[in-house]
Amino acid sequence: MKMVHQINLAFGILIVLVIAVTAAMNHYVLLNHFIGAQKEEMQTMGANMTTALQQKEFNGMLSKETLPITTLSAVSVANVEAIITDNEGKVVYGTAPKLTEAGVALPGVAVPVTGLKQQTSALKIAEGKDSRFIVSATAIPQGTLTLYTPMSKIKDIEQALLGRLLIVLCVSGAIVYLLSLLITRKLIKPLMKLRAELKKVESRQFSEVKLIKAGGEIGAVAQTVYELAGELDRYNEVQKQFFQNASHELKTPLTSIAGYAEGIRDGIFEGESALKGLDIILSESGRLKNIVMEMTLLAKLDSEQDIFQMNEVNVEELLKETHERINPMLIKKGLSLHIRYGEKNLGHWTIRADKDKLSQALLNVVSNATRHANHEIIIEVSVVKQRMNITVADDGAGIPHDLLPHLFHRFVKGKDGDTGLGLAISRAIVERCKGHITASNKEGSGAVISMGFPMLSQTKV
C-alpha cells in the first residue's frame, strides 16, 4: 500500500475513533445531566408539596377528592406522578403505570392505584427498584412522598440531542478528512519526486538529479540530496581524471625503463650509452616508487581514520625542523629561507595535529616553493581570529591563473613539477588536522600558499 493511502487510512480511522469516543462521552454526560436536572426539579416539587401537606390535617387516609396531586404542586410539570406511602410502607395515595393484560407496566400511561398489581407496581417504584423511572423521595409527617417520571422521556430528549451532535461531528469529520487528503497529497508529492531523484543517484546518474522545491524538513532533505548528488558527480569526475592521470604518470617511467632495458639486452646500448641507460632506469624506478608511495599515502589519508596521531605541536619546532630538512635543496639552488613571527613569542604557541604528517605537508609546500623561487622564500606566522596562519611565499613567477582553482588536485603539475601529488597530499593532511589551505599570487611576483589551524595555547619557555 502506498504511503499516501496509509496516511489517509490512518487519519480516517483516527477521525472515526474520535467521533465514536466523543459520542460515547456525550451520551453519558447528557444522560447524567438530564437525570440530575430532572431529580432537582422533582425535589423542588416535593418540597412544595410537603409544605402544602403540612398545612392540612392528616386523618389517616388521603384521597383524590380531599387532596388531589394538582393542588399539592407549586408548579405543574408534565409527566411527573406522585406516590404517598405511610410509615409502614403501604401506598395510601398515588398513580402507577397502566398495566397490560400480561401485567407489563406502560411507563407513559398512569392510572390511580387501586388493584393489588398496581399497588405492587407503585410500591416497587417508590422503593426505587424500577430502573425505567427516575425517582425522588421526600419525607413528610404522614410518611413518604415519592415523585417519579419515565426514563424514556429523558432518553428521547438525550437521543435527539445526541443525534444532532453526531450529524455535526460527522460533517466536521468529513470536512477534516477532505482537507487531510489535500494536505497529504501536497506533502507526499514532493516525496515521490524526491524518490525519483534518489533513483537517479542509485543508478549513478548524478548530473541528472534536479532540485525538488518543497518547504520545511522535506525541502531541507531535497536540498541535501541535490548537494550530495553534486558532490558525488564531482567526485566521480575527479576519480575518472585521477585514473587517467595515474595511468599516464605510471606509463611514462615504465616506458622509459622498458625501452632502455630492451636496448641494453639487445646490444643497442653499449659502453657509456649502456651506463647512461642504467642511470635512467634507476632514476625512473625511483620516480615510479615515489608515485606509488604518494598514491598509497593519499589512499590512506582518504580512507583510514586511525592513521593520524593527534597531539599538541609547537609551531617553532615544526618550522625549524622543516628548515633543516629543506636546507640541502636551498644550498644547492642558492636560495635563502626566512621565518618571521607576526607577534612576540608567537612561535611558542601550539596547534593540534599529527606532527609527522604535518611536517611532511609543510615540507611539500616549501619544496614546491624552492622549485619556483628566484632568490628567497619567506615563511610567516600570524594569528587571525584565533587561528594560526602559516604562509609560504616565494619570489618566483607565480602560479598561472588557469591552474589556481585546480592546484591542490591530484596529478596537477605546473612548470618543473614532479609527480603532481605533493600539494594534494598537503591539502589532505591539513584538512585532516582541522585546518584549511589556499593558494594565491602576490602583487608583483611570487606565489603564496597559506595554511590555517585552530590555535590551542602558548607553551612555557
How many strand units? 12
Helix-strand pattern, N to C?
HHEEEHEEHHHEHEEHEEHEE
Helix/strand-derived class? Answer: alpha+beta
User: What is the number of domains?
Assistant: 3
Tell me the helix content. 40-55%
Distance between the termini: 72 Å
Rg over C-alpha atoms, rounded to the nearest angstrom: 51 Å
Number of H- or I-type helical stretches: 9
Per the principal axes of the C-alpha atoms, what is the gross shape? rod-shaped
> Taking all residues together, what is the mean pLDDT?
78
Instruction: Sketch the major β-sheet.
Output: 7 strands, mixed
Pfam family, one: HisKA
Subcellular location: Membrane
Protein name: histidine kinase
Catalytic activity: ATP + protein L-histidine = ADP + protein N-phospho-L-histidine
Describe this structure in words.
The chain has 461 residues and is α+β, with helices and mostly antiparallel strands. It is 54% helix and 19% strand. Strands 6, 7, 8, 9, 10, 11 and 12 form a 7-stranded mixed β-sheet that branches. The chain has a 5-stranded antiparallel β-sheet with strand order 3-2-1-5-4, with helices on both faces. A hairpin with a 5-residue loop joins strand 2 and strand 3. Helix 4 packs parallel to helix 5, helix 5 runs antiparallel to helix 6 and helix 8 packs antiparallel against helix 9. The longest helix is centred in the N-terminal third of the chain and has 52 residues. About 5% of the residues have low confidence.
